[in-house]
Amino acid sequence: MTLKLFRDFMRDHFAFTLVYFISHILVSIYCNYYISSNIQLMYLLSIYFYVFIIFLCFRFIKYVSANREIQRLSENIEIEEKGFSCEQQAAITLIHRIHQTYQDQIYEVKAQADNTHKFISQWIHNLKTPLSVIDLILQNYKMNSTGHAVALQHIGEEKDKILSMLNQMLKFFRLEHFSRDYTPEPVNLLESLRSLINSKRNQYIYNNVYPLIECEEESIMVMTDSKWNMAMLEQIVSNAIKYSDAGEETKSIHFHIERRGDQVVLSIRDEGIGIEKVDLQRIFQPFFTGKNGRTHHQATGIGLYVCSEIARKLGHRLTISSEVNQGTEAQISYLSKLKDSVM
C-alpha cells in the first residue's frame, strides 16, 4: 500500500519535478556563462537537490495524510481539521458530501424497507382472522347444514374484509410510484361523492348507518386526481361506517361541501365511538391503531396513514377532529383551480 502510494505521489509530482530541475539548471548555466565563471555548477545543483528533497518530504507527508482522511471516510469517521491544501480540502469535502448523501439514501431505503416489512407482517396477521372465521363457519356448517343462508352471509362479510385489506395493500405499494400515476384534473366532487356512497349502499344498510349530503351547488369542481381522491375518500368513509357502531339505533354520516375563498372544503362526520384525545396526535402514523384498534381487531393502522400520504401528494389538507362517544369529523381542503405549488 505504501509503495503504491509513493508511486502515485511521484507520478502526480513528475511534471513539477521536471520543471523544477530544468529551470534551476538553466539558471545555473546562465549564471556561470554571463555572470561569473567561478560559480560551481555542481554545488548549486546539490543545494537545489537537497532543498527539493526536503520540500518533497513535506509534500509527501501531506499527501499521505490526505489519503488517510479519504480512507477514513469509507469507515464513516469524522474528518480531522488539518492543514491541507485548498485542492486537497476541496476533494475531501466533496467526497465527504457524496458519502453523506449516499448514507442518507441508504438510511431512507432501509427505513422504507422496514415500513414495508412491518406492513406486510401486520397485513398477514390481520388476514388470518377472517380466514379463521371462514374456517369456523364451514366447520359449523358441516355439523349443522340447515343454516346455509346465514353461513353464506357471514362468509360474504369476511370476504369483504379480505378484499378491503387487499385494496389497502395495493394502495400502500402504489404510493411508492405516485408520480407515475398522477393526473391533476377538474373533478366534480359532489358527483364523485355520490358515486362512492352508492357503491357502499350495502355496507350502509348492514351497519344501520345512512348518509346525509349537504351542498348548496349541484356541480362543484376541484383540482385533484380522480382515482387517488376516490381511494382517499373510500378509506375515510369506510372508517366512518365501521366505527359508527350503530347497533339497533340508526345513525347518520354527514357530508358537507362548501366554498371557502379559492378552496372547497369537504367535511365527513360520523356519530360513532370517536377517538381518544391522546390518540388523535398519532392517527396518521403507520401501523398505529390506538384504543379503538384493541376493540376492533380488523383495524390495521394503515388506512389513515395512506389517506394522509395521498392528501399530501395531491396537495390537499386533511385534518381529523373527534370526541369520544360523539363522533369523528374528517375535513379535506381542495383547490378549486390548479396552482403551481401543487405537486
UniProtKB/TrEMBL annotation:
<protein>
    <recommendedName>
        <fullName>histidine kinase</fullName>
        <ecNumber>2.7.13.3</ecNumber>
    </recommendedName>
</protein>
<keyword id="KW-0067">ATP-binding</keyword>
<keyword id="KW-0547">Nucleotide-binding</keyword>
<dbReference type="GO" id="GO:0005886">
    <property type="term" value="C:plasma membrane"/>
</dbReference>
<dbReference type="InterPro" id="IPR003661">
    <property type="entry name" value="HisK_dim/P_dom"/>
</dbReference>
<keyword id="KW-1133">Transmembrane helix</keyword>
<keyword id="KW-0902">Two-component regulatory system</keyword>
<dbReference type="InterPro" id="IPR003594">
    <property type="entry name" value="HATPase_dom"/>
</dbReference>
<dbReference type="InterPro" id="IPR005467">
    <property type="entry name" value="His_kinase_dom"/>
</dbReference>
<feature type="transmembrane region" description="Helical">
    <location>
        <begin position="12"/>
        <end position="35"/>
    </location>
</feature>
<dbReference type="GO" id="GO:0016036">
    <property type="term" value="P:cellular response to phosphate starvation"/>
</dbReference>
<feature type="transmembrane region" description="Helical">
    <location>
        <begin position="41"/>
        <end position="61"/>
    </location>
</feature>
<keyword id="KW-1003">Cell membrane</keyword>
<dbReference type="GO" id="GO:0004721">
    <property type="term" value="F:phosphoprotein phosphatase activity"/>
</dbReference>
<dbReference type="InterPro" id="IPR036890">
    <property type="entry name" value="HATPase_C_sf"/>
</dbReference>
<dbReference type="InterPro" id="IPR036097">
    <property type="entry name" value="HisK_dim/P_sf"/>
</dbReference>
<keyword id="KW-0808">Transferase</keyword>
<dbReference type="GO" id="GO:0000155">
    <property type="term" value="F:phosphorelay sensor kinase activity"/>
</dbReference>
<dbReference type="InterPro" id="IPR050351">
    <property type="entry name" value="BphY/WalK/GraS-like"/>
</dbReference>
<keyword id="KW-0597">Phosphoprotein</keyword>
<keyword id="KW-0418">Kinase</keyword>
<feature type="domain" description="Histidine kinase">
    <location>
        <begin position="122"/>
        <end position="338"/>
    </location>
</feature>
<keyword id="KW-0472">Membrane</keyword>
<dbReference type="GO" id="GO:0005524">
    <property type="term" value="F:ATP binding"/>
</dbReference>
<dbReference type="InterPro" id="IPR004358">
    <property type="entry name" value="Sig_transdc_His_kin-like_C"/>
</dbReference>
<keyword id="KW-0812">Transmembrane</keyword>
<dbReference type="Pfam" id="PF02518">
    <property type="entry name" value="HATPase_c"/>
</dbReference>
